[in-house]
Amino acid sequence: MLSMYNLSEITVSKAPLVTELNDLLKDKNTVALVDENVAKIYAGLFKDVWNKIILIRAGEGAKSLVYTEIVIQQLLELNIDRSSNLIAVGGGVTCDLTGFIASTIFRGINFSFIPTTLLAQVDAAIGGKNGVNFNGYKNVIGTLQHPDLIHININFLNTLSDIEFTSGMAEVIKHACIHSFGYFEFLKRNAAEIKEKNPEILLEMVRQSVEIKAQIVAKDPKEIGGRKILNYGHTYGHAIETHLNIPHGFAVSMGIIVANELAEKQTALSEKEQLEIKNLLRQFGLPTDLSSLEFNALKNKISKDKKRIQSKIDFILLEEIGSPKIKAIDLCDLP
Ligand code: NAD
Ligand code: ZN
User: What are the 3-dehydroquinate synthase C-terminal domain coordinates in residue numbering (predicted)?
Assistant: First the structure.
């Protein structure tokens, strides 16, 4: 269990999946909601429990009210009751949907997460935010409820596509930038091993990232303000993601570069540190070249950001690696 985090019990491990997950899945009160791709790849894991598994459609489309109703219908057909426990096995989509259903059905039942993508392990599974999309708006309907258990096993990462793994690395690098120079150095030193998925190094990396996210959430469990620093790279990141239609982490990587350029003037982030961050992102195959960006269109999107207050918008800028600051920047001062 991680230090300082009593919102959920979190374990991070590299033990063989079958030995570790069998008991959890076999529990008589448990129904597992499993991403359909994960169910296919890891069919052996579920061989004795097929009768109490619900397959979740892969992709963002599963995070909808219509799909929520379909899954709830299946749960009721399995005769779940208030003593039942739901376990999500999948990426951020499966975790978000499972958490939303579990925290609303019968006014809330127990639930746990077994996140299987890097993004879900270091980010989406931790923090208690559950929700679905509505009419093109992301995560607008949801709950804030922490799962009882978050069980992270890095073996799942071996079958993840390169794009999904690389995308998740943007959040890992974000954690280092906003929290720890030591962790940043660790990522630099071990980049080759991480890319090769060396189990010891990967375990250490996921553990450190989880610890950072958990610590930030623990200080602000109800999302009142302290969590804002997790938004580093995300103001431009979100705008770039929808504008260029690229994976989340790729857009966040470019968003980090924009934030760092703003930070040069606003918080005196040195050119040397900007370059260090750019090089680390590049080492993991994340994009850092901003020449394809149409800044006018992005600015237009950002001006509609729900976090805007009059003509100013809060940015998370670094003073140095490991030391973030919240700065309200006037829209006129954006590139
Ligand atoms: P995802 O759940 O869609 O998974 C990505 C793809 O990987 C899917 O095709 C899935 O089938 C596949 N997959 C999952 N595990 C696999 C494995 N071990 N091996 C092979 N393939 C595997 O996407 P994601 O990136 O994990 O999560 C994105 C979602 O998370 C978004 O909806 C986002 O809004 C949400 N999110 C939520 C929070 C939060 O705080 N709740 C934070 C960040 C992101
Ligand atoms: Zn993100």
Answer: 168-307
CATH (domain of 308) = 1.20.1090.10
Report whether 243 contacts 254 (CB < 8 A): no
Tally of domains within the chain: 2
**Among residues of the chain, what percentage have pLDDT more than 70?**
97
Q: Is 94 in the pocket of ligand 1 (CB under 6 A)?
A: yes
Check: CB of residue 114 under 8 Å from CB of residue 153. yes
The torsion region of residue 268 among left (phi > 0), alpha (psi -120 to 50) and beta comes to left
Whole-complex ipTM? 0.99
Count of CB atoms within 10 A of residue 227's CB? Answer: 17
The domain boundary residue, chosen from 159, 179, 212: 159
Q: Please tell me if the CB atom of residue 64 comes closer than 6 angstroms to any atom of ligand 1.
A: no
Q: Which structure tokens are listed for 211?
A: 């610890």
- The protein residue whose alpha carbon is closest to atom 44 in ligand 1 is 124
- Which residue range is the domain that position 31 belongs to? 9-159
Give all strands (DSSP E) within the chain, no chain letters. 9-13, 30-35, 53-56, 85-90, 110-115, 129-134, 137-144, 149-153, 308-309, 312-320, 323-330
Q: Do 53 and 68 fall within a single domain?
A: yes
Q: Amino acid letter at 200?
A: E
pLDDT digits (tens, 9 = 90+) for 264-323: 999 999 999 999 999 999 999 999 999 999 999 999 888 876 666 678 899 999 999 999
CB atoms within 10 A of CB 30: 20
Ligand 1 lined by 159 (C-beta under 6 Å): yes
| Mutation choice for ligand 1 from 94, 97, 117, CB with most ligand atoms inside 8 A | 117
* The amino acid at 1: M
41 lines ligand 1 (CB under 6 A): yes
